[in-house]
Amino acid sequence: KDDGIVYWRNMENKTLVQDLKLFSFEAREKVVMIQVISTPSSSQALFVIGDQGTIMLYSKSSKAGLLFNQFNINGPVHSVDRINSDSILVSVGSGRIYVLTFQFEHEDISLDLKRVHGISNARYIQILDANDHIFEAILVDEKNNNAAMVQAKYDPNPTNVENDSKAIEELIRDTLEDLAHSESIVKSMEIEEQEINEKLSSINRTLYALHSINNKRVLGQCNSIDSTGFEFTVQPIVKSNSFENCILNSKACLRLCIKTSRFLELENWTLQLDFSSELDKSCGQTKLFSVIGFEAYYENGIERYAIWEHDAELDIKTLILPLNMQATLVMTTNDSGEIARFPVANMIIDDLHFAIPLSNSLNTSIKRRGLDKVSDQLMHAYQQRRLYDKSSRDPLSRLIRRQRNTPEQKHLLDHRSIHFRYTIDAMFSDEAYRSILSTLFGEGRTINDLKQMLLSAEQSSFALVSYPGCPVIVELSRVSSTVIEIKINCSYTPALFKAEATILRRVQTNYKETSLSKDQGDINLVNKLKKLQETILELQEDCMETDEDDSLWTRLKSAIDMYYSLHNDIPIGHLE
User: Fold this and answer.
1) For the segment 232-271, what is each residue's pLDDT rounded down to a tens digit?
2) SUPFAM superfamilies this protein is in (predicted)?
């Protein structure tokens, strides 16, 4: 295997396949060749060569047991080929070629090394004719970026270096090359050791700083650069490439920002964002961002802190809002992998975070022409854009077809307005009332962005980035001194329901919502709920029998209308 471990498997046993670990190389040395050779005693031996020059040999002992021998040659090993039962041809180091021969004398095993002179820089070798000692080699000249294939012949007999001037010259050259190579290895090891020491010092300083920051943090409170020396912010934004404030060309993004003091060294860390849907736990996604490229921030000519920013785009077609996002800083190394995690944020992201304020011209057009006409025109343009989109952002866009619904089905899905009511105390101030919409829509937004979204204290207009062609109008009003009403208008039912669910959730998050007392409820509420329950049970029984009866849609429509009658007329909670 690549991890340098050698296993033995008994292939005769067909019913039970079990691998037995024989041995393994150290320091992540990989196996280059594994062969079974014959010994003079007519027994077999197993030898394995690693890419760093380690040779292991297992042979049968005259006694009961195995003999183990280990040899080492100067690596790395580039290529190996077998010559005969006890000899191999190997290319090592700077491309020198050797003939390795195992010599067996009883239980004394040695390894004979013979240099093949005249060839160097060999990266690949192959025996062509073992009887005539002919082999093929690929020579690589790294300085000139050249390669050549040659055929050569090696001498199996030992060479007397003393009587061969060329062999002496080559031996001297090889020795000098080995010295230069060893010197370069020593220098690279010194540089690597220095880098490791610097990295360890940086890691220790950073971990100490993070520990100090963690002790200063208070759960549930935002931590600034001044209080802790570290600040992480996430701002949901909608980016558009439009010059004319067109809402159809928009995408949802998260603007990530890290501010750190000079003592906190986060370069080469990774910011991990884990997204999970609150509606569908199986729907999730993880995004990783390298925290590289901090910019210095100066104040009065003095560097105060460093800033890192990145805009992460969200694919809202695959991620179902609302999302739970967890942000974590992760320290990793190439050798040991992940070694530290530092949680920095945990937040909920919903559709209102990516609400697009409508332009003044679009608001004026809605007032003059009506919400339905403007929405129909925008939806038609949006569907045409998706249908003829040739990019890879929406690969199934050309498969879009209009659904052929029956009139009953169309009528069932034709909801364009929803309103719900809350009771308030008689002492609920006018200032608190006029701040309701800004409280619901202001999370994660700048003041200027919120001003564009609010037409007044009682009216807001926007479009959801998931339905950019469907403007939404939200209106706030007082029904009485103790009852307020929030009305949502949208010409596209799915966008209407999505806006309703998000606003209801925002109300629960930003206000203390209590249940109503008995005297605040409708006297007929119990009877209406019983009737609604009976209708739903009847529909369930009919659907078990058939789903092709068109009258079911009409009855289902009446049940939904009854639900919204309860939902709209009776306050659903009390705000404090």
Assistant:
1) 889 999 887 666 667 777 889 999 998 887 767 777 788 9
2) WD40 repeat-like (SSF50978)
- State the burial class of residue 172 (Cβ atoms within 10 Å of its Cβ: 0-12, 13-18, 19+): exposed
Phi, psi of 101 (to 5 degrees): -130, 125
pLDDT digits (tens, 9 = 90+) for 369-417: 999 898 888 888 877 776 666 555 554 444 444 444 555 555 555 678 8
- Closest by CA to 305, choosing from 318, 313, 295, 292, is 295
Query: Is the distance from CB of 20 to CB of 6 less than 8 angstroms?
Result: no
User: b/e per residue, 458-485, with b = 16+ CB within 10 A?
Assistant: eebbbbbbbbbbbbbbbbbeeeeeeebb
Taken as a whole, the chain contains a residue count of 576
Least trusted range by pLDDT, from 22-36, 125-139, 428-442:
22-36
Q: Is 444 exposed, middle or buried (0-12, 13-18, 19+ CB in 10 A)?
A: buried
Contact 539, 563 (CB under 8 A): no
Which structure tokens are listed for 34? 């594994």
Domain ranges for the chain, please list them: 5-159, 225-349, 355-575
Lowest-confidence region among 307-321, 356-370, 409-423: 409-423
Q: Which residue has the higher pLDDT, 214 or 505?
A: 505
Q: How far apart are CA 538 and CA 562, in angstroms?
A: 15
Give per-residue pLDDT as tens, 534-555: 666 666 566 555 555 666 666 7
Phi, psi torsion values for 274, nearest 5 degrees:
-110, 120
Q: What is the pLDDT of residue 531?
A: 66
Q: Is the peptide bond before 158 cis (omega within 30 degrees of 0)?
A: no
Tell me, which fold does domain 225-349 have in CATH?
Answer: Immunoglobulin-like (2.60.40)
State the first-to-last Cα distance of the chain, in angstroms, to the nearest integer. Answer: 67
Torsion of Cα atoms, 437 then 441 then 442 then 448, to 10°:
-90
How many CB atoms sit inside 10 A of residue 75's CB?
17
> How many other CB atoms are there within 10 angstroms of residue 418's CB atom?
19
Sign of the alpha-carbon dihedral angle for 508, 511, 513, 519: negative
The pLDDT score that the predictor gives to residue 421 is 87
pLDDT, tens digit (0-9, with 9 covering 90-100), for 1-26: 566 677 777 666 666 666 777 777 77
* Cα 386 to Cα 365: distance, rounded to the nearest angstrom: 24
Do residues 176 and 94 touch, judged by C-beta distance below 8 A? no
Tokens describing residue 236: 């949901």
Largest CA distance in the chain: 120
Q: How confident is the model at residue 160 (pLDDT cuts 50, 70, 90)?
A: low
Q: Tokens standing for 340?
A: 């530290």
How far are the Cα atoms of 80, 177, 300, 379 from residue 153, in angstroms, in the given order? 16, 24, 76, 79
Residue 499 and residue 481: Cα distance in Å, rounded?
Answer: 26
Cβ distance 64 to 46 under 8 Å?
Answer: no
d(CA 94, CA 73): 13
Q: How many CB atoms lie within 10 A of CB 166?
A: 10
Query: Are the C-beta atoms of residues 65 and 78 closer than 8 Å to each other?
Result: no
Is residue 209 scored above 50 in pLDDT? yes
β-partners of residue 459 are: 456, 475
